[in-house]
Structure formats: C-alpha cells, structure tokens
C-alpha cells in the first residue's frame, strides 16, 4: 500500500510539472534589500558583472540537463519485431539567467529569463 501512495504522489508531482516547493519569485524576493555580500555568499560568484550609472548588475546562470525517454518514432519504424519501436533516449538542457541590480551595496531588483527558470 505504501508503494502505491508513493507512486501516486510521484505521478501527481510529474503531472503538475514538479511544481513542489516555493516558486522562483518566492525564492528571489528575500534578496531584495539585502547586501551584495549576502547575495554572493548565498549564490556564489556571479558569471558576469557590469557597472553603469552607480548601479552594478550581477548575473548568475544555472543549467540543468534532463534525460528524455525515447518516444514512438516514424524514423525508426512504428512497429519492430517485438512491438512498437522507440527513438533512442536523449537529453535537453534548460538554462536560467538571473540578474540582480545592486545600488549602494544593496540588492534593488532582479530579472530572470530562460526556459529553465521555475
């Protein structure tokens, strides 16, 4: 019985797009108003920095790879000797780029972009 509950929970999480836990907005919002040192201590050294007109922009990047199971494919024939034929598994890479604006040593705002931001 316990195994069935675990599988059902996993299936629900997969159906919801693994939308468990806080959203990206909820995770980033607490950084607004904090010091630049706290930001770097928490997230690590930024990939890029840029300074203009008294503001500093710190950009952090995250990439994640996901394995994608093979799917029925006309390129490999729909039916092989032992049933449906599947394309070989592969992987996709999702990227998220988060940029924090810092003024006078304090995080002022943030923006993010990419298909891996969630």
TrEMBL record:
Protein source organism: Craurococcus roseus
Protein name: Uncharacterized protein
Range of residues in the leader sequence: 1-19
PROSITE patterns associated with the record: PROKAR_LIPOPROTEIN
Top-level taxon of the source organism: Bacteria
Keywords, sorted A to Z: Signal
């Amino acid at each position: 019985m316990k195994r069935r509950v675990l599988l059902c929970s996993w299936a629900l999480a997969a159906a919801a797009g693994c939308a468990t836990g806080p959203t990206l907005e909820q995770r980033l919002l607490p950084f607004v108003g904090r010091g630049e040192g706290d930001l770097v201590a928490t997230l690590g050294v930024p990939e890029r920095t840029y300074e203009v007109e008294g503001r500093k922009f710190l950009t952090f990047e995250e990439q994640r790879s996901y394995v994608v199971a093979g799917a029925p494919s006309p390129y490999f024939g729909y039916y092989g000797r032992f049933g449906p034929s599947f394309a070989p598994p592969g992987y996709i890479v999702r990227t998220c780029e988060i940029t924090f604006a810092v003024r006078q040593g304090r995080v002022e705002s943030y923006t993010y972009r990419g298909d891996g931001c969630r």
